[in-house]
Design goal:
It is a single chain. The chain is mainly alpha-helical. The protein is built from 26 helices and eleven strands. It has helices at residues 2-15, 18-37, 60-67, 111-116, 126-130, 142-153, 171-177, 185-198, 204-214, 245-255, 261-269, 283-292, 307-312, 315-324, 337-350, 360-363, 373-382, 413-424, 429-439, 449-465, 473-484, 494-497, 506-514, 516-523, 527-535, 541-578; strands spanning 54-55, 58-59, 84-86, 89-91, 155-156, 163-165, 243-244, 277-278, 304-305, 447-448, 491-492. Strands 5-6-7 form a three-stranded antiparallel sheet. A hairpin with a 2-residue loop joins strand 1 and strand 2. The longest helix is centred in the last third of the chain and has 38 residues, at 541-578. The radius of gyration is 29 Å and the shape is globular. It starts with a helix and ends in a 16-residue tail after the last helix.
């Protein structure tokens, strides 16, 4: 009996790991896509996919037919890591085939159609951004397109045996062949050289040495050998430092042809020896982007992104948009200066001691003290922190100092961003899960009447103190249940809030439980204003809030500048009259440092 219990515990532990969770979701999505692409009984087949590749005299279609009846969707193997032996030879991981054309080196490359077919939710507009011009000539094999670029821009090597592309000339490959934004050029060039130079090295320590060398900003790769000045790095003397057609062909076969656009993007951003994207992996691309858009420097300030999340997001298309849009203020996804300014100014207003840490007392002042102290306590105790808790800082003299703030006693800037985005836009899944976790005090994944009543009791007390008539808990809950329509009468689960028809109203329950100002606005809402919201230009509540708050901050900034100008004129007049120094000083201003 004890052995069975132990096995159950091990199974639960295994299923709760992030890696297994991602793999299970991948299997489900692969199964769904396979089922959708299976010919129906009516004989109408799905859109054409990648042509079958021959393996040992049989095509892949033949191999599948031997194992299962035609027309029956089969669940693929749960997991097959790269390098697994299959039928006597090394096999590559099973991938989603999202391209409608052959992506092999000898095949046809059609970046517009193939990228648009990757995922209609995330990359549907990538193909449009890549090719807005008139229809071009018929597609040609990738090797021919690459050969044309090398013939046009390539330079002969020292011995004249082959041609190479410098980093500057490689941009055409990056954009037209690999379909990456132009500011990916430098990191892509270095990644190709690193993988090429290490693919025959078996020592992990040697690979790491080379990896660290290629992370240096001043590394001399991608330069014309005839134009190089100074001595060459000792390590680089034994490595290839420019890309030839042979090197690029090897990279395409190994890293591109078997993967869809999302996974190509994922494999490029992550470290070669990791299976996730960390926030530091974005830094090389941000630095390249800042050369064209210096106003985005705020972006360069443990979160992880998996390949499944990349495929389901619009991050790739956002990179293309910011690459091609000259006016950076028109880009609101991820790179908006307006959004950053609002977030940072709100953080700056609360952080009075300027230690870049928001305490409970600081957060209580957020939004004109709209939050209850109970939810503020839960934010510090249980709210998700995507980048984890920071390490405990040691005092400068090396001694233990109990007066130092513990990691759970404050919110970092990153934690505050996560909080504020969740607070100002409760109509998305991330925000719903954020607040559900805070309200679910016992952590059982269900909100019961007792939990909600304890939060609402504080709201009733606050309304009484302010002289407002309050709604009894039972009436409030009945109203919310009618809007949300949960599956169970006795409790709410997070899936109840995520129903499509509840997206615009699910946040009202959270406001009723802990945000007094928004709850009062909800109870006194004007139907005409609600209709205006539905018809305005903003896609989300956050976009609407950020625009309004940015205008408020801009007006306050203009007022401060006008006051400062008047003070300067008064100072000049007084100095001319009596020669005395007159300085009002603005050291106490709470203005953000921009």
């Amino acid at each position: 009996m004890s052995a069975a219990i132990k096995m159950d515990e091990l199974l639960v532990t295994w299923l709760s790991s992030d890696t297994v969770f991602e793999n299970v979701l991948n299997v489900i999505e692969t199964y769904r896509s396979t089922a959708q692409n299976t010919p129906s009984k009516s004989g109408i087949s799905s859109p054409p996919s990648t042509p079958p590749r021959k393996t040992g005299g049989k095509s892949e279609d033949d191999t599948v037919s031997d194992a299962s009846p035609r027309g029956v969707a089969t669940i693929p193997p749960f997991y097959r890591p790269a390098g697994t032996i299959s039928n006597g030879k090394k096999a590559k991981p099973i991938r989603k085939q999202s391209y409608d054309s052959d992506q092999t080196w000898e095949g046809i490359h059609t970046s517009k159609e193939s990228l648009a077919a990757t995922d209609p939710r995330s990359n549907a507009d990538v193909g449009k951004s890549l090719n807005n011009a008139a229809p071009s000539a018929p597609p040609r094999p990738i090797k021919e397109q690459v050969a044309d670029i090398f013939n046009e821009l390539g330079k002969p090597t020292t011995d004249g045996s082959t041609a190479f592309l410098t980093m500057d000339n490689f941009v055409k490959i990056t954009k037209e062949i690999c379909s990456f934004p132009t500011f990916f050029n430098g990191p892509l060039y270095k990644r190709i050289l690193y993988l090429w130079n290490t693919h025959v090295i078996k020592s992990q320590a040697q690979r790491l040495i080379i990896w660290n060398e290629f992370q240096k900003e001043d590394i001399k790769v991608g330069l014309d050998p005839d134009a190089e000045d100074g001595e060459k790095d000792e390590l680089l003397e034994h490595l290839d430092t420019v890309i030839t057609k042979e090197i690029f062909k090897w990279y395409w076969v190994e890293e591109m042809e078997d993967f869809d656009a999302s996974e190509r993007f994922f494999r490029l951003l992550k470290k070669p020896f990791e299976n996730f994207i960390g926030k530091d992996d974005f830094l090389p691309y941000m630095k390249e982007l800042l050369r064209d858009h210096p106003g985005l420097e705020f972006l360069c300030h443990s979160g992880r992104i998996t390949t499944r999340q990349i495929r389901r997001s619009d991050l790739l298309s956002a990179f293309h948009q910011v690459d091609e849009e000259e006016d950076i203020n028109k880009v609101t996804r991820y790179f908006s200066y307006e959004h950053f300014y609002v977030l940072y100014c709100r953080f700056w207003e609360l952080d009075h001691d300027r230690d870049y840490k928001i305490t409970r007392e600081d957060l209580m002042k957020y939004g004109e003290q709209c939050l209850s102290h109970m939810i503020v306590d839960r934010i510090f105790e249980a709210a998700p922190r995507p980048f984890g808790l920071p390490e405990l800082e040691e005092s400068k003299d090396g001694s233990d100092n109990n007066s130092e703030k513990l990691p759970k006693d404050y919110l970092s800037y990153e934690d505050f961003i996560f909080f504020m985005l969740s607070e100002e836009d409760k109509a998305n899944e991330i925000s719903v899960r954020y607040w559900f976790t805070c309200i679910d005090v016992d952590g059982d994944g269900m909100l019961n009447n007792m939990e909600m009543r304890s939060f609402y009791a504080l709201q009733q007390h606050r309304m009484t103190q302010l002289g407002h008539e309050y709604i009894p808990f039972e009436d409030m809950l009945c109203q919310m249940i009618d809007m949300i329509k949960p599956k169970h009468e006795d409790y709410l689960v997070v899936e109840d809030f995520l129903q499509e028809e509840c997206a615009t109203v699910s946040g009202a329950l959270f406001d009723a439980l802990f945000n007094l100002n928004k709850y009062m606005q909800f109870e006194q809402r004007d139907p005409f204003q609600e209709r205006q919201k539905r018809e305005d230009e903003f896609e989300t509540d956050w976009d609407r809030f950020a625009c309004m708050d940015y205008n408020r901050l801009a007006m306050e900034e203009e007022a401060r500048e006008e006051d400062a100008m008047e003070i300067d004129w008064v100072t000049v007049d007084d100095e001319e009259e009596d020669g005395e120094d007159f300085n009002l000083g603005l050291g106490g201003s709470s203005e953000a440092p921009f």
